[in-house]
């Protein structure tokens, strides 16, 4: 059965003066898919994500998230998406549960519903034993996991992650990657994430898109990109770094 398309961009373009940040981007992402979005600094990844989040308007083209236009229906889009930026902000003098309760109230989630949800999420991100500690004392990995819980408090359909494992130790990285995969496999959430850590992107992504100088130069499953970009046959070994560098050099 064909999965629903939850992110759709067609000829999406963003200009800043005479500079083209995103150049006629056409891309679709399906429900439950983990989509890795790659490219060097200045490639247009952040601008694309800002348009998907409704934080900047396209110059031309269309973008839809679960059928809604982020620029025209920003509140509708914010109800159904979650966003974890690279640097997560919390109230440092509050504990994990207090931070999550605050976010739940901002999203109009009644306390009678959020209480059980917060407990479940703290277990899910392995912070139940640290829930009464002030967040100011948390490690980078703990803060990232609390950030995931904060994203999930409103049970979004689509989650956007920006460099979710930057600065984490190996254990924290593995926990984060396992959690991302679980959200996709067990809850059928769509995960759209940007990262420079290619081995991790290769590990968890269903499909990958590569942006160079504002253009989407490749998109598809890893095996397909290896076949197209490197001329490999099925079963031959490859790395995402090899694929990425091939497209980067040709762009």
SSE topology:
Blueprint: E1 5-16, E2 19-30, E3 34-38, H1 45-53, E4 60-65, H2 74-80, E5 81-84, H3 96-106, H4 111-124, H5 140-152, E6 158-162, H6 170-187, E7 190-194, H7 198-204, E8 207-212, E9 215-220, H8 222-230, H9 240-250
Parallel strand pairs: 3-7, 3-8, 5-6, 6-7
Antiparallel strand pairs: 1-2, 1-4, 8-9
Helix pairs in contact: 3-4, 8-9
Descriptive account of the structure:
A six-stranded mixed β-sheet has the order 5-6-7-3-8-9, with helices on both faces. The longest helix has 18 residues. The two termini are 35 Å apart. The chain is globular. Helix 3 packs across helix 4 and helix 8 crosses helix 9. With 251 residues, it is of the alpha/beta class. It has a domain of 169 residues: P-loop containing nucleotide triphosphate hydrolases (Rossmann fold), CATH 3.40.50. The chain has nine helices and nine strands.
What's this model, at a glance?
By secondary structure, this protein is an alpha/beta fold.
Main attributes of the structure:
Rossmann fold, 24% strand, three-stranded antiparallel beta sheet, 39% helix, alpha/beta, six-stranded mixed beta sheet, 251 residues
């Amino acid at each position: 059965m064909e999965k629903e398309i939850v992110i759709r961009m067609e000829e999406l373009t963003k200009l800043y003066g005479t500079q083209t940040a995103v150049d006629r981007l056409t891309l679709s992402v399906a429900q439950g898919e983990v989509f890795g979005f790659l490219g060097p600094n200045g490639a247009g990844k952040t601008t694309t994500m800002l348009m998907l989040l409704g934080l900047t308007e396209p110059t031309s083209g269309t973008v839809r998230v679960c059928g809604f236009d982020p620029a025209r229906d920003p509140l509708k889009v914010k109800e159904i998406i979650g966003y974890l930026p690279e640097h997560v902000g919390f109230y440092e003098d509050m504990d994990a549960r207090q931070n999550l309760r605050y976010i739940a109230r901002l999203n109009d989630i009644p306390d009678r519903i959020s209480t059980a949800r917060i407990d479940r999420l703290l277990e899910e991100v392995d912070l139940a034993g640290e829930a009464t500690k002030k967040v100011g004392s948390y490690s980078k990995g703990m803060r990232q996991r609390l950030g995931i819980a904060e994203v999930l408090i409103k049970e979004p359909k689509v989650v956007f992650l920006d460099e979710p494992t930057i600065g984490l130790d190996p254990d924290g990285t593995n926990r984060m990657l396992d959690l991302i995969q679980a959200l996709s496999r067990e809850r059928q959430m769509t995960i759209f994430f940007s990262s420079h850590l290619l081995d991790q992107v290769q590990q968890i992504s269903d499909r990958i898109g590569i942006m160079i100088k504002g253009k989407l130069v490749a998109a598809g499953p890893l095996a397909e990109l290896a076949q197209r970009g490197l001329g490999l046959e099925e079963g031959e070994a490859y790395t995402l770094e090899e694929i990425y560098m091939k497209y980067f050099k040709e762009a």
